[in-house]
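[Meeting: bench + compute handoff]

Bench side (C.D.) handed over the final construct sequence. Compute side (W.E.) agreed to return the predicted structure before the next meeting so the bench team could plan truncations. Sequence as handed over:
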Amino acid sequence: MNTRYQELASRIRGELSELDHVVQRAQSAWRYVQNTADNQVYLDSVALNLHGLYSGLERLFELVARHVDGVTPSGENWHRDLLQRMAQEMPERRPAVVSADTARALDEYRRFRHLVRNLYTFHLVPEKLEDLLNALPRAWQNVQAELLAFAEFLEDLAHTE
């Protein structure tokens, strides 16, 4: 049995549980944004949690790239390239980790994370946050299902090697 793949599958399952909590916090803070006149602190909370969501997913993608694909993400556009890589099947190694549709949806969160890292939060546009929050339930449901399917692939692989 290949324990490396089993450990990665366990890590994916554990991180998904943690990230589900992050999604719930973002959605909860968004409800406060909608119902509170002085909502800047809640907007900050939404932004921070969306940042955390994509960062957590990217950590998982990095682990897949390193431990399954045998590559270390690098270069000026490595964040974008890594996400694109996860939507590609790697013949003889693995299926796509996420679908092309999921990767496109996640790219919006990746780009938003870049904004959060490079702007003061008071410059964030609430309408952009609203678009991301409206898309979040479907995007999260899809990425969860696809990552759980990938974890199953890893577990099967761990038992055959």
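W.E. noted at the follow-up: DSSP finds five helices and no strands in the chain. C.D. will use this when planning the next construct.
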